[in-house]
Amino acid sequence: MNKTALITGATSGIGKATAIELAKENFNLILCGRRQQRLDDLKTELSKITDVHTLTFDVRHKDEVKQALESLPEAFQQIDILINNAGNAHGLDPIQDGSTEDWDAMLDINVKGLLYVSKQIMPQMIERGNGHIINIGSTAGKEVYPKGNVYCASKHAVDAITQGMRIDLNGTGVKVGGINPGLVETEFSEVRFKGNSEKATKVYQGFEPLKPEDIADIIKFVVTRPYHVNIADLIVMCTAQASSTIVDKK
Ligand code: NDP
Ligand code: 8X3
Questions:
Q1: Residue 165 class from Cβ within 10 Å (0-12 exposed, 13-18 middle, 19+ buried)?
Q2: What is the pLDDT of residue 1?
Q3: What does the pLDDT average to over 229-242?
Q4: Whole-prediction pTM value?
């Protein structure tokens, strides 16, 4: 029987690329996000090769998360792999100038959203004694960079939650791992800079950043290891990047 993977944030960037990569590997997919049209389009494309179900919800709202996950048709109720990917940075400001709305968004989406989704799915994995949770952290969860303050805090929290999940789920048969990318060219900076494409494009100029497909390829590798192998933590940067602040730009 094909395994089922649920991907949050599948409408764009890393999540979308992962959906495409896992479809090619014959995983059945539950694709989540807020933008319904994008989910519908991706479903149309990927249904040609695998079974796809979409769920439209905002990870910030725990009742919506619960309702959406409880609505799954029988064929999609067993979730073998959970990829907690939904998230973004909002703003890039010194902390003293930061917007409380941006802080709320990052902590509510990147941290609490990940917890709400996991809370719904962990029990069935524990009951079966089998499952795999992958949390998408960031290099921003391993170090702090200027003006990154709350985004870095949210990704440090993801790193801590990943470690905590692995400890608490030890012995249940559920694997937990973190993947922490550096600079990946997606809609990430468009969102961070609130639609300012010029600013967003500049982030990735003068060097070759990671592509979402690079991370998707690694996720595919991680989820296709034998059961006894758990890739617990990965940091992935492009060759031009040495740390959050050291990037060889020509
Ligand atoms: P994108 O902006 O391209 O994708 C973000 C995804 O998250 C979208 O599918 C979006 O879907 C979803 N999302 C955002 N907010 C919500 C919400 N409130 N409820 C449900 N879904 C939401 O960015 P990336 O692909 O780059 O980001 C994916 C993950 O990778 C994030 O966790 C990010 O922090 C992390 N990351 C990114 C890096 C990068 O350089 N790009 C590097 C390191 C980590 P929709 O808007 O339809 O809801
Ligand atoms: C995304 C990587 O360095 O833009 O998490 O914060 S960075």
A1: buried
A2: 85
A3: 98
A4: 0.99
